[in-house]
Design goal:
Keywords: Heme, Iron, Metal-binding, Oxygen transport, Transport
Largest sheet: none
Number of domains: 1
CATH class: Mainly Alpha
Pfam families: Globin
Radius of gyration: 17 Å
Structural class: mainly alpha
Number of strands: 0
Order of helices and strands: HHHHHHHH
Organism: Diabrotica balteata
CATH topology: Globin-like
Family: Belongs to the globin family.
InterPro entries: Erythrocruorin, Globin, Globin-like_sf, Globin/Proto, Mb-like_M
Strand content: under 5%
CATH architecture: Orthogonal Bundle
Helix content: 55-70%
Length: 166
């Protein structure tokens, strides 16, 4: 029967009544997160550049913790060190998306991100700014249902990170 549905373009987009006990994400949320993230990964560096430039525009104080803090924003997009960092940010998020079906792995990744940033004394409010910025950027190219699923996921992601910044 699945083959017949697939022939008509109907695919399994996940259930809405099976929320994960840790994350609260349903299989539908996970499906929407994975499929929408695939679009981001078509151009990870450029999307990372867009994300961090928007972060610095909306929350200028966040730039002060980066090694490229003295480079003017209008020059950052061409700076190799900045672009490399943007790429690594996107791939860090991608590892979270890849682990979305394995809650214990996902939590482990998030805890590590929190611990790594604690060592650098990154304030929690900077992560709150990043969360807002991600939603703002995603809203420019994702559908409402995808944004809703990302909001649910980002709330969990940044809570676990914040808990490990303390």
């Amino acid at each position: 029967m699945g083959i017949i549905w697939s022939a008509f373009g109907v695919t399994n987009t996940g259930r809405t009544d099976d929320a994960d006990s840790t994350t609260g994400l349903t299989s539908r949320d996970k499906y929407l997160i994975k499929t929408s993230w695939a679009g981001v990964m078509k151009s990870p560096t450029d999307n990372g550049v867009a994300l961090l430039l928007l972060l610095f525009k909306n929350f200028p104080e966040t730039k002060t913790v980066f090694p490229f803090k003295d480079i003017p924003n209008d020059e950052l997009a061409k700076n190799v060190r900045f672009r490399a960092h943007c790429n690594s940010v996107v791939y860090a998020v991608s590892s979270m998306v890849d682990a979305i079906d394995d809650t214990s792995l996902l939590v482990g990744i998030l805890e590590k991100v929190g611990r790594d940033h604690k060592r650098r004394s990154i304030p929690q409010k900077y992560f709150e700014g990043l969360q807002e910025t991600m939603v703002e950027l995603f809203s420019t190219f994702m559908k409402t249902n995808e944004i809703n699923s990302w909001n649910k996921a980002l709330n969990v992601i940044f809570k676990v990170i914040a808990d490990n910044l303390k």
